[in-house]
Amino acid sequence: MTTSATPERLLPALPAHAAIHAHPERDRTAEAPALLAAGLVAHVGFVDDGRPVVIPMTYHYAANEPRRLYLHGGVNGRLMRHLASGAPVCVGVTELDDLVYSRTALNHSVNYRSVVAYGRATAVQPGLPERERVLTAMIARYFPGRIPGRDYAPAPSAQLAATALVALDIEEWSAKVRTGGPNGPGDLDPLLPGTAGVVPVGRGPGREPAAAPRGGGWLPGTRELGTPGGPSVAWCGVRW
What we know:
This protein is an alpha+beta fold and 240 residues long. Helix content is 14%, strand content 35%.
């Protein structure tokens, strides 16, 4: 399925259960396709035998199929059985970019990009040729540059038949993003006690996740705010 519609026209107006209520200024629903295409892990929520269940899964999403999301798993899993019944699911995808620390307890936060989507399995599920196409695209999304036949052996029909790949129709979605530093009172004032800053931890654009050296020491890549000379951001080490 392909479409040339702009992202904000892909889905109808959000119902109350899908709308963003806390921090509406962080609403980035128009960016949901790009955020889903960049994510790695989907947490899928559903009700099984009267109990809420959330299962982390790998998935595939492509911008040329903006209302379709594929979940990958074993054919005998309870989620796959649930989806086969046509029951609804909720899918959450989050990328954590930074830890944000403040001079005040309540203003500690994180920078993130997230999507919450609601949907159910499509009436017609992928056959073997479609599974092969989607799984090949999925591998390329997680491992850019890998080519079947050169870097790995393609899955034979028997393996494809033993692999569940469920296509979901996305009915509603919302997206939310936080960026920037701490916004507590005095966080940019170097004369006040305490510290404030940002610790990169995720896969933000143009960087690798920060990693602490073995045996303790300094956490590299930390930005501390409120350095002498003004509110500019300076790179420095922070003892952990």
